[in-house]
Give the backbone structure.
Amino acid sequence: MSSPLGGAVPGPDGGLRCPWGLSTADYVTYHDEEWGRPVHGDDALFERVSLEAFQSGLSWITILRRRETFRAAFAHFKIAEVAAYTDADRERLLADPGIIRNRAKIDATLANARVLADWSPGELDELIWSHAPDATGRPAPRTVSDVPAITDESTALSKALKKRGLRFVGPTTAYALMQACGLVDDHLWNCVARTPA
């Protein structure tokens, strides 16, 4: 289901939605209830950073459908617990068919947890949210082609995270994180899930 101009399209209830949010039932729920909603808390943001890294090069639906398995495998992304993972845990993850068994992404997630375990409570939340752009300076996208893949803010966030030792946080991944966690609202202007101005 798509719009020839890349605009919002009617969903099962007749409400207009971003075209990507209608491709599967899983996406409808994620689009309507999560994507673009503010996420706070270090562990919650560590989960989003980790899952966006695992998504790199893959479709988000691949990650979304494995999210509960990822949560079980990574101690619900509690930073302190993942930071304490041992070589045996790493081998367990590499053998877990319920997640994406990419060695570099698993290693990055474990390394990121160890880095973040040394940060002060709230520091990850503060760093990420300090890169939220001024919402009043961003017109609502009218079509999917108006939604960027990288912005100045995502590039700055990527650099800030890398400077602090985090891995798999390039500008495109950083922008996907910003979209998913509500730092930006990239729902189309007439999408039912867009936050009213």
User: Anything to note?
Assistant: The chain has a mean pLDDT of 95. The radius of gyration is 17 Å. The first strand starts at residue 9 and ends at 10.
